[in-house]
Fold this protein.
Amino acid sequence: MTTYTTIAEDTRPLHHPKTWIGKYVWSQDHKVIAIQYSLTAVGVGLVALVLSGLMRMQLAFPGMLEFITPDAYYQFVTMHGMIMVIYLLTALLLGGFGNYMIPLMIGARDMVFPFVNMLSYWVYLLSVIVLMASFFVPGGPTGAGWTLYPPQAITEGTPGAGWGIIMMLTSLAIFIVAFTMGGLNYVTTVLQARTKGMTLMRMPCTIWGIFVATILGLLAFPALFVAAIMMTLDNTIGTSFFMPAIISNNVALDHSGGSPILFQHLFWFFGHPEVYIVALPAFGIVSDLIATHARKNIFGYRMMVWAIIIIGALSFIVWAHHMYVSGMNPYFGFFFATSTLIIAVPTAIKVYNWVLTLWRGDIHLRVPMLFAIGFIFTFIHGGLTGLFLGNVSVDVPLSDTYFVIGHFHMVMGVSPIMVVFGAIYHWYPKITGRMWDTMLGQAHFWITFLGVYAIYLPMHYLGFLGVPRRYYEMGETAFVPESVHLANVGITIAALTVGAAQLIFFYNLIYSYFKGRKADPNPWGATSLEWLTPDTPPAHGNWGPDLPKVYRWAYDYSVPGAAQDFIPQTTPPGPDETPHDH
Amino acid sequence: MRVAIVIVLLVIGSVAFHFLSPWWMTPIASNWTELDDALIITFWVCGAVFIALNLFLAYCVYKFSHREGSKATYEPENEALEGRLTFWTAIGIVIMLAPGLIAWNKYITVPDDAITVEAVGQQWQWSFRFPGEDGVLGAVATEHISPDNPFGLNPGDPWGADDILIDDGFGELHLPLDQPVKIVLRSNDVLHNFYVPQFRAKMDLVPGTFTYIWLTPTRTGEFEILCAEYCGRSHYNMRGLVVVDETPAFEEWLKEFPRFGQSDVAAAAGAP
Amino acid sequence: MKLLRELTKKPWLEKGFDSDDGPGADGIRGPAVAATGMWFYVGVASVMFSLIIAAYVLRLGNYGADPASAAAAKASLAWWTLAAICGIPPADDWAPMAEPFLLWINTGVLILSSIAWQRARGDLRSGRMDKLRITLTAGGLLALVFLAGQLTVWRTLMASGQFAPDGPALAFFYLITALHGLHMLGGLFFWGRTTAMVLNGAEPAEVATGVNVCAIYWHYLLIVWVVMFGLLLIT
């Protein structure tokens, strides 16, 4: 009980860099690696944002930008999707937030494998470089759609079917190696580097979300890895894993017997858990934002943790709901529709509990809380539209229409990004030691929140109408009224506005980094460990001479009888509190 | 206050958008009202939940925003409440799922009196094949495909001789009114999807195998076929046309097209 | 069960902590982190190899044009359960592969390698570092012999004109052996580190984790290979 761990006794090797390069480039400090991951992810995400702007220009004003040919359009579609899902969201939420928050929130000095952690970032950077390089290879990047379905992904009728697809598959394989290295680190750290008193059920929801999402990633990415290798072999040396006998460009290809649907199964065995790899960290983080800024414990903490685990487990048996009209065995529709709608129950409970946390709370509408509320709204919308697409026969008329675009952007684009913004505003004072500008933060929130709803709400209705997705232009189509064109113009204006509004965000972050006022170590009165570091920003090794000790869960907000409306996790039990009974 | 008002306005705006916007399901032209019904049920259940949850959210934000001296209630959990919410959510799920599964069962079960037609996709056009009097489509294989035999019919298969080939470059298919039809789907190159918005039904064409949908056209008219599975650079231009006719007009139209037995390929192979 | 009890606790009721709950002086709870990391990686690799098996069976079940082979395939339960997922019955291009006899010898070598690793664990437990040097070296070298044997199989196949595109069974064979070999190479990297430490006179405690983790990983790769080889043999 009374032994204190000190740096001198701490036999675990902690790499102490001597030079600037050792500190900020070849760094093994989880915080530096987190920043490297985040900056790279956001950087490449900006490329994807620009691509979406170009796509919107083409849809609203067909032919106005002459360089957007059908080939270019489909390349933009593909790269936008792949970058956003994998290289931005997965990397940012796990490589960025996971890296920064895990050791700090569980009271560790660093990840358990700091060297592997560093390697993970550099391999990730390599995958990004390979991906970006595909813009410059002959034929340009692949335009196969982010799902990369064969045969079209590797046949001549698709842009980038030569070099582009090889670069994409290579980059994905490299990314998966990077993710696996990082992921092994995150799960082992959560399991074994928790400080004294940090039991599993005292971990903040953020850690639960990141932890379960990482396990999902570790178990799901191998499917994409295998699929990528098999497709590369089909493409380069002419095997027939996925390629049946087909005609391409009037020539019979030298393949036979392969199964395109086999690829789809592998892809979605990865692809559906991937949705939750993005969503679960967001679920966890937003729970902590809401609890902190509503000065109330997250309502039903146990249910929230169980829901994260149940959703994670169920996410492996719902993959074929992406394939209702793919030509797979039609009887699978019954099973996958049922399993998919079952997953809605724990998800709904999470939504109820977020709102019930606000109920009778003491809500401080600071910018992180605004984004959390924005998340609840957009996630309710995106989650409910998921019930349409998950229900097999409702999916039939809606699949491959703009309804799908509207749905998945709301549920796994907009709502996680709301959480990302909220989280950045929330932790920025700790990470940089400075405060951001409130007015700019609010402006950023309102334009983004209202803007994205203006973008995606109409898309659902275009989907009801039947407008198909992945169309370079609609041209003359009898069932599509002229008003759809107006909608496209409106959506594009909203999209460009939202895109431009992100400049406010970056200006705010950069300006505040240099000129913002010094931040309080714990400006929001939060209970969890990351706010209790001796230094702000946390120094190398995080905790000074002694590791923190945890006496309570992360949600002792507004406890009756307490002097303040929060009790940090490191505060020993008071006289009125029942101590641990053992 | 401001946040609560905006949320309420967004809810009102969404409802208003639903009623005022000109976009809703394109008028149906097939028997698949079950799909529409399942969608409508889902729409109203989800719509009600959307309104209720967000209004409650707005209420919470309005009522419990920080004021001088206000304090949050300490309530770690409420198992009874969480149990009730779980129960009612499950009920809602069943209400949506049941009609969906029933409709799906019908969707994948082709009625016995359905006639057969094959739709063939190839980058980036549609062609069609009727089985002729014998009601059986002749065997096909990629290796038989040639400029003279674009469907890849096996000349040695006797069932193929009376197959009626519709490959006029327009991608126009006529179907008889009120007659159930099974549309067998086949692709010669990549994935495509046979999609007529007014029919609601859709399904991928998968190279290397056959898939199908079935439907009964319920009104005459012209309906566009759109490819709904991304199939390469001209995906958006892969259009076709379904014309639903009264039966006599349909039969008149079908007479115009050649049979495989009349083709040079079949003649060369010595088929009947 | 312990986990279930842990997960159903009401954390807001419990303050303070058990004196035995928490990390040791090195900030780590429980067993060596390298072992945990290895076990998680075994999970990752297992998913990967399982998916390859699934893909293999699905591709195998991809019969169609030939009714006789389709009927034969459908007689097996495995085909029904797995090919149903695939949902399509196409081509009949599956040609079983004639497994070269050398694969049996390679399998034997890999078994010997695992035995050497197991003996190395025993030597470590009894603290006999002199014997550990021999068993460790043997374990690694036998693995290298295994890899060389696999390469020879590749070369023999290619010399007789059997390349990956020549049939799905061959394609899977190359894919499986390549991935398995890469995993073995990864293991050999850690073998090299551990062996170098032992040869440089490290204490048993310093290399204990390395030897144990590597040994278990070797056994795992043996199991993977036996399963994969069995799959190749029965098809």
Q: What stands out?
A: The beta strands of chain B are 115-122, 125-130, 164-166, 172-176, 181-187, 192-195, 202-205, 211-215, 221-227, 239-245.
